[in-house]
Amino acid sequence: MEGCLFCKIAGGEIKSDVVYQDDRVVAFRDINPQAPVHLLIIPREHIPTISDLREQHRELVGHIFLVAGKLADQLGVAREGYRVVANCREAAGQTVFHAHFHLLGGRQFGWPPG
Ligand code: AMP
Ligand code: ZN
Fold it and tell me: Whole-prediction pTM value?
């Protein structure tokens, strides 16, 4: 998708601190981390929001959560606990309209979120 920041990151056109990638997803460090571990896991496919997920994405979403779990383990936050967050549209604070999942860990989180 032309002009999409995360498509450019997935394509390597814009540099990022990639920690994992495969044929379906890329995981990289958030540029403005909100926790000691803060990754963004994105599908390579341009999907604007999680509300745009369809039946054809069922496997992809499962894959993203399995990748999140493995990365949390590798980065040493799985045991103490971590959070996976997808902000959907403006009221939830979505600023980049290429669906993504935040993986946050390494500190205590409050509930409910603000
Ligand atoms: P959201 O607010 O849920 O749409 O999350 C977008 C996230 O993308 C924010 O946490 C930003 O800090 C992050 N972000 C924006 N630009 C970049 C970039 N070039 N590299 C890494 N993370 C970015
Ligand atoms: Zn995109």
Answer: 0.98
Enumerate the domain spans of the chain.
5-105
Mean pLDDT, rounded, of the chain: 98
Report the distance separating Cα 79 and Cα 23, nearest Å.
Answer: 28
Nearest to 97 by CA among 108, 105, 86: 86
- Which of 16, 85, 96 has the most ligand 1 atoms within 8 A of CB, as the residue to mutate? 96
- Which CATH class, in words, describes the domain spanning 5-105? alpha beta
Give residues whose Cβ lies within 5 Å of ion ligand 2.
Answer: 1, 4, 6-7, 46, 98
| Amino acid in the structure at residue 51 | S
Residue 102's beta-bridge partner residues? Answer: 40, 85
Stretch 12-26: mean pLDDT: 98
